[in-house]
Specification:
Helix 1 (2-16) packs across helix 10, helix 11 runs antiparallel to helix 14 (337-349) and helix 11 (271-294) runs parallel beside helix 15 (358-378). The protein folds into 2 domains: 2-44 and 191-383, no CATH class; 48-164, abc type-2 transporter like domain (abc type-2 transporter like fold). By secondary structure, it is mainly alpha-helical. Strand 1 (53-59), helix 3 and strand 2 (84-89) form a beta-alpha-beta unit. The chain has a 4-stranded mixed sheet. The protein has 16 helices and 4 strands.
């Protein structure tokens, strides 16, 4: 055991002598955390009630008579503090063009005959008042705006029905404030913490781990080591412990910055959150070992590591939500383990970003862990240069 610990110490000291290891594993995560919180930290300070959508309204006829009801509704939802900001158009094609160019979120068309249809519907209790709503498929804000407008119109229908029906039972509710559990507010400094932590873990796992193993193997260092009493399993154990040491040092620095500079508390010290980081370490390290199993040359490991690092970092949702992407590339989001790992940590913190159940957040990374370890175990002798 003492032999393994001495070897681990030697590996770790040799590792931290390299500037690129110090920078990418220890310094860069702190710089990235500082940059992201500085640029996007103000997002949390905005008033969520102040969010508004841009609506273009095309009136093919002036509303009068019973049509004034609709006019009052539109005036209410586009007034100051309402959910919509109105732009009036005389031409539908112009409104649709602005919608396609992103200048509008939705377009509402009040067609000809609306006044007559509203009068017939209210007086004769028959018929519908068709309004046309145009929105952009695949654009999240456009879809939300269309849903909000639809819900508002449903409420208008209910209110009209209530006023017309003499037997309508008007139930009055009283709101009682219960302070035992409050909805968690959004804190970007806290939200981005798991993403930066997982980025650091990926950096150590996909670069330091496979490159260290392959460099020792191709340089013949392994063969010299095996002339000593050191066994391959001891070598691997020392390599693994060295990676954990590097990650823990970086995490301690990241925690220190988050706690002292950005006052992030509570959630990041939750035992379940810490366990999720350990789980992320195991899954990520297994990926690095799988790279070492496939790559024979250091250049191959560099290309594979860099490619996987970029894809798993940006397509895994470490820094921003990625579930609004087209299905042509969204399938990759659901394939990557980082999607589930970072969401698992955020779910424990109280953020629910991804439309994925808690079970899958654990099962999918476990599948990747078992698969990667199996690949490495089958190639253990080759990876460790013991053949």
């Amino acid at each position: 055991m003492s032999r393994m610990w001495r070897f681990t110490s030697g590996l770790f000291k040799n590792e931290i002598r390299e500037f690129q290891v110090i920078f990418w594993s220890l310094v860069f995560p702190l710089l990235l955390y500082f940059i992201l919180t500085s640029v996007f930290g103000g997002v949390a300070g905005g008033d969520p009630q102040g969010i508004s959508f841009k609506i273009g309204i095309v009136r093919e006829e002036s509303l009068s008579g019973f049509g004034k009801i609709l006019d009052e509704v539109i005036g209410g939802i586009t007034a100051q503090g309402g959910p919509f900001v109105e732009t009036t158009y005389d031409d539908l094609d112009k409104a649709l063009d602005d919608l396609k160019r992103g200048r509008l979120d939705i377009v509402l068309v009040i067609p000809k005959g609306t006044n007559a249809k509203m009068a017939g519907s209210l007086m004769l209790q028959a018929g519908e008042v068709p309004l046309q709503v145009h929105y952009v498929s695949g654009k999240e804000s456009s879809g939300i705006a269309a849903n909000i407008l639809g819900e508002i119109m449903n409420e208008v229908n209910l209110e009209i029905k209530r006023r017309q029906d003499t037997d309508y039972l008007d139930i009055v509710t009283t709101n009682n404030v219960v302070s035992a559990q409050q909805e968690k507010g959004f804190d970007y400094n806290e939200y981005i913490f798991p993403g930066v932590a997982l980025m650091m873990i990926l950096s150590v796992s996909l670069f330091n781990s496979p490159m260290g193993l392959i460099q020792y193997r191709v340089s013949g260092t392994n063969k010299k080591l095996y002339t000593t009493p050191l066994k391959p399993l001891e070598y691997f154990s020392a390599h693994f412990v060295k990676l954990v040491f590097t990650m823990l040092i970086s995490l301690v620095l990241l925690y220190t910055i988050a706690l002292t500079v950005y006052r992030v508390q509570g959630a990041i010290f939750d035992p379940l959150f810490i366990l999720s980081l350990i789980f992320s370490m195991l899954v990520s390290v297994s990926f690095g070992l799988m790279i070492a199993s496939f790559a024979k040359k250091l250049s191959t490991a560099t290309v594979l590591g860099q490619t996987l690092y970029q894809v798993m970092m940006f397509m895994g949702g470490l820094y921003f939500p990625i579930f609004g992407l087209p299905w042509g590339i969204r399938w990759l989001v659901y394939l990557l383990p980082t999607t589930y790992l970072v969401e698992l940590s955020r779910r424990i913190m109280g953020y629910n970003i991804a439309p994925i159940s808690m079970t899958w957040l654990i099962v999918v990374p476990l599948i990747w862990l078992v698969f990667s370890i199996s690949v490495f175990a089958l190639n253990f002798r080759k990876v460790m240069g013991y053949e």
